[in-house]
Amino acid sequence: MLLRDGLTGLLTRFGHEVVAAVGDADALVAAVTEHAPDVVVTDVRMPPGFQDEGLHAAVRLRGERPTLPVLVLSQYVQRAYAAELLDSGDGTGVGYLLKDRVGQVEEFVEALAEVAEGGTVVDPEVVRQLLRRRRDPLERLSPREREVLALIAQGRSNAAIARELVVSEAAVGKHIGSILTKLDLPPATETHRRVLAVLTYLRA
Fold first, then answer.
1. Which residue from 23, 93, 153, 157 has the highest number of Cβ atoms inside 10 Å of its Cβ?
2. Which of 39, 45, 46 is nearest to 70 (CA)?
3. How does the average pLDDT of the chain come out, rounded?
4. Given this model, what pLDDT does residue 104 score?
5. CATH superfamily label, 2-132
6. pLDDT at site 16
7. Strand pairing partners for 96?
8. How confident is the model over 153-198, as pLDDT tens digits?
9. pLDDT, tens digit (0-9, with 9 covering 90-100), for 88-145
10. pTM score, whole prediction
11. Contact, 68 vs 62, CB < 8 A?
């Protein structure tokens, strides 16, 4: 809500008319139907589940209105989300930015204007992640992190890994946290990140 109110004030200050500011994906779809805005700004995660409701609403809207400009904000780089959004609609008038970019006010407003005019704006970090997609996903891990991940893949617990490597369980926990970050596995309620990390290891 704070981000929504902040964006509303920011855009109004720069001379834009905010025709609706809503709190969930269904309300977003309804507002677009009612107001036919020049551009939509949405978060990837929206109530009630705070998963990817906003993204799916954006993709749905662009499916119904291929030329509708949409700028999506995300807390983390989600490569699958970015790819799905960029493939939606007619391929124009789309943007995917990390929320940190909103703090750079002029840059954000310029990006929004570019999307509204039919351009494509993708956060530089998202581009780097997308380009990295074809590389070995484990290349970012240190040798010790690879060792820890290999033991996780063998079904070892943190305590067992600590005994194997002769380190503390706290050290193992730190390694696992770093592994999950480097493999782009942010916290989520409906997925088990440890399992996803093992699947990534096995594929690689």
1. 93
2. 39
3. 86
4. 82
5. Response regulator (3.40.50.2300)
6. 93
7. 72, 122
8. 988 999 999 999 999 999 999 999 999 988 888 776 555 888 888 8
9. 777 789 888 888 877 788 888 999 999 999 988 888 877 776 666 556 778 889 999 9
10. 0.62
11. yes
- 143-203: CATH number: 1.10.10.10
Maximum distance among all alpha carbons in the chain?
Answer: 63
CB-CB contact of 59 with 85 (8 Å):
yes
Distance CA 169, CA 52 (A): 33
Least confident of 12-21, 23-32, 94-103: 94-103
- Is the C-alpha dihedral spanning 139, 144, 147, 149 positive or negative? negative
Burial of 166 (0-12, 13-18, 19+ CB in 10 A): exposed
**Structural domain spans, the chain:** 2-132, 143-203
Q: Which two tokens stand for residue 111?
A: 């990006």
